[in-house]
Amino acid sequence: MQLTKVIGHRGAAMLAPENTLASIKAAAEAGAKWVEIDVSLIADGGLIIFHDETLDRCTTGSGKLRLASPSLVASLDAGRWFSSEYEGEKVPTLVQALDYIQSLGLGLNLEIKHDADDVENIVPDVLEALKEHWQDNEKLIISSFNHAALALCYQMDSSRYLGQLYEDIPAEWQAQLAAIEAYSLHCDYERLTQAQATAIKQAGYKLLCYTVNEAQLVESHWRWGMDAVITDDPNLFVHLEK
Ligand code: G3P
Ligand code: MG
């Protein structure tokens, strides 16, 4: 695995409209070697890069994302809300994003978003897209807050590096990570305690923290053994890669 210390969140969400190709490019230009993006399911089985459950905040459209057709999503502007400089930016499909990220030589943390009952609709198609369109398994972590989604990933392809996402780390974290032979645990830096960090590292897992937008907020976390930050502004941390 070629994990680095700095992962751009939704590309580089502070520098360009999140989860767009422009945002991925901004992360690379800032010096990040990895990006995190969110993959979501829309109507007709389409897979796109998008965070929210509705189109409203980040596009010129509105309404529930899950009900939007690929042609509707393709017609939307996903940059204008951020600034006029990005007018015309599109919502990428998963395949477009995979191709672009690899063309820039970046690693990828792909976060699977889902409706509660959509795990079996999204996971097989994500794995198939990765099989067809992602070359280097050593530069890919699949993560999700949904343990069932990761369990299905593990069942279908145990060679993938899996990252369990948590807001609050539950008491049963170690059993959950063991059940999917997880590579990493990804958590909210604000809720992580030193005791949890120590236990996670002692158990042999990589520890990634989101979403860190001020360097001094995680000075102690590095000492606790944190391996990487997921940040909206990679500029804050890229000196650590040197
Ligand atoms: O993967 C880390 C982070 O992206 C998880 O939260 O809501 O920003 O997707 P969210
Ligand atoms: Mg995410």
Automatic annotation (TrEMBL):
Keywords for this protein: Hydrolase
Organism: Marinomonas mediterranea (strain ATCC 700492 / JCM 21426 / NBRC 103028 / MMB-1)
A single MF term (Gene Ontology): glycerophosphodiester phosphodiesterase activity
Pfam families per the UniProt record, alphabetical: GDPD
The protein's name in its UniProt record: Glycerophosphodiester phosphodiesterase
Domain GP-PDE per the UniProt entry, residue ranges: 4-241
Catalytic class of the enzyme: hydrolase
SUPFAM superfamilies for the chain: PLC-like phosphodiesterases
PROSITE patterns, A to Z: GP_PDE
UniProt-listed Enzyme Commission number(s): 3.1.4.46
GO BP: any one term: lipid metabolic process
InterPro entries from the UniProt entry: GP_PDE_dom, PLC-like_Pdiesterase_TIM-brl
